[in-house]
Amino acid sequence: MNPARCPVDYTIVSATEVGGASISAGSFGTYDSVNNKFVLPASSARYTDTTNGYKPGTYTVTVQGSVRDAVSSTTDTATLQITLVDVCDPPTSITPSSPSDVSYTISDNPATKVVPAFSVEPSYCTLSYLTPTI
């Protein structure tokens, strides 16, 4: 800002998923005007929350700068795109369990074997199991 003694306050005025709906700008993130940085609360809870969370994708964010204590309204906006990457595609790792061997005699009643769960990192990634038909 010119002159430097005119401080600028920043706010996020809109956030829209590219090709999608507008989301609440206040819930998307904040602007740290002291350090001149956009702050996105990127916790695992935000990833797994299907109502108020962020899904992976590209978002268009509009930031407004306003000169503090200006007699007349002095504002301008800048638009940027932020891409949120899906940390579960692919996950860091998936570790199979160690099931015990099973012996089955043909013609016996059907056998059931419970396979211990696999583990995945990050732990909030969703695992699904496919059961083949034999």
What's the quick description here?
The chain is mostly beta strands. It has helices at 25-28, 44-48, and strands spanning 8-17, 22-23, 30-32, 37-39, 57-67, 75-84, 93-95, 119-121.
Give structural notes.
By secondary structure, the protein is mainly β. It has a domain at 8-84. The chain is 7% helix and 34% strand. The chain has 2 helices and 8 strands. The protein has helices at 25-28, 44-48; strands at 8-17, 22-23, 30-32, 37-39, 57-67, 75-84, 93-95, 119-121. The strands form 3 sheets. The chain has a 4-stranded antiparallel sheet with strand order 2-1-5-6. A hairpin with a 4-residue loop joins strand 3 and strand 4. The protein starts with 7 loop residues before the first strand and ends in a 13-residue tail after the last strand. The model has no long low-confidence stretch (mean pLDDT 78).
